[in-house]
Design goal:
alpha+beta; 3-stranded antiparallel beta sheet; 3 strands; 32% helix; elongated
């Protein structure tokens, strides 16, 4: 597993669905699953600050992470089938912010 090429089979901005997908793959007996998350947008403040003023609202920190699951390339088809049977959509959902960002990029 150390130097095998991996393929992303799940990538969404939904933590609950990510947990469900991880559980479905574990229950199906897939052992070489790598799951994690990454920050989707840079902080609002500059100079490398991780403080985001939007996180200090009444409900606390907002979850803006993109959650992913990667498996070895040869097991990707099997993993997608397991996720489909579990009722998990595997594609990254497009939000309005993503669409606005794409429009801005196209303008330049």
């Amino acid at each position: 597993m150390l130097f095998k090429k991996k393929e992303t089979v799940f990538e969404r901005k939904d933590r609950a669905l990510w947990e469900l997908a991880k559980t479905a793959l574990k229950e199906a007996g897939m052992k070489s699953v790598r799951a994690g998350f990454s920050e989707d947008e840079p902080p609002v403040c500059g100079c490398g600050s991780k403080l985001d003023p939007r996180n200090f609202g009444p409900r606390g920190k907002i979850d803006r992470n993109t959650y992913y699951i990667r498996v070895p390339e040869e097991e990707a088809v099997k993993a997608r089938e397991i996720l489909r049977r579990a009722g998990v959509e595997t594609e990254l959902e497009s939000t309005e912010a993503d669409q606005r960002r794409e429009r801005r990029i196209r303008l330049y």
